[in-house]
Design a protein that fits this description.
Oligomer: single chain
Radius of gyration: 25 Å
Helix content: 55-70%
Shape: elongated
Number of helices: 10
Largest sheet: 2 strands, antiparallel
Strand content: under 5%
Order of helices and strands: HHEEHHHHHHHH
Number of strands: 2
């Protein structure tokens, strides 16, 4: 069992972790809209992880690497462990962020207090992305992951913001109708306003939903051409 304590064994395990972290980071870099400085930072992290991972090896192409001491490998292994921990925090934060946003959308969908989104915003988001999740085999609990995968995104909160920004007209209309519902004292008008605040039951969808632009419509008719 002494083999399990050797530098070579520990380095091999750490390199496997590195490969997993690099795949996760590259997926984020490929699919997520990042600020220029953030993108550069994580690209550099991936490059360093690859380089330091190689520095923990004692053999390359079947030949022993000359001049690389055990102290060198120990130092590289220590640095690789730090890089893996940093990458784990970053990708873990993404997962926690996904779960938080998913919970906020769920709360908004049932008009629960405390959500960062309104009920209308949740409706608009899911209507705009319905092609991604209204498919056979995708249940309610899987729809947010299905949406991200379908549209090539990794950050749920950022994508919700993106969809709501392109549906500002529908969202503004929803806010007007909500204010009308809250302040209108006339019974007939109040009933009409309440009709505009639900997409379920016999009363049908809110009128602002007719203004929702789907992702497919945006990409086809509105999105600026890439130069």
């Amino acid at each position: 069992m002494a083999y399990r304590k050797t530098v070579g064994y520990r380095a091999e395990l750490e390199r496997k972790k590195t490969a997993t972290r690099i795949r996760a980071l590259e997926n984020i870099l490929a699919n997520e809209k990042l600020e220029r400085n953030s993108r550069k930072k994580f690209e550099n992290m991936v490059d360093e992880m690859r380089a330091v991972s190689d520095e923990t090896r004692t053999y390359k192409d079947g030949k022993r690497i000359v001049g690389r001491s055990q102290e060198d490998i120990e130092a590289a292994l220590s640095r690789l462990t730090e890089l893996n921990e940093s990458a784990t925090v970053y990708t873990g934060d993404r997962r926690r962020g996904f779960l938080f946003t998913q919970n906020q959308l769920n709360m908004a969908s049932v008009d629960a207090e405390g959500s960062v989104y309104t009920k209308a915003e949740a409706k608009i988001f899911y209507r705009a992305t319905q092609k991604a999740w209204q498919r056979e085999g995708i249940g309610e609990h899987e729809r947010n992951e299905a949406i991200l995968q379908y549209y090539g995104r990794t950050n749920l909160a950022a994508f919700v913001e993106e969809v709501l920004n392109m549906n500002k007209l529908a969202n503004d209309a929803a806010k007007v109708l909500d204010e009308r519902r809250k302040h209108d004292s006339d019974d007939e008008d109040t009933e009409e306003a309440q009709r505009n605040d639900t997409s379920d039951g016999e009363k049908g969808s809110p009128t602002y939903m007719t203004l929702v632009i789907t992702m497919e419509e945006y990409d086809t008719y509105i999105k600026p051409p890439t130069r």
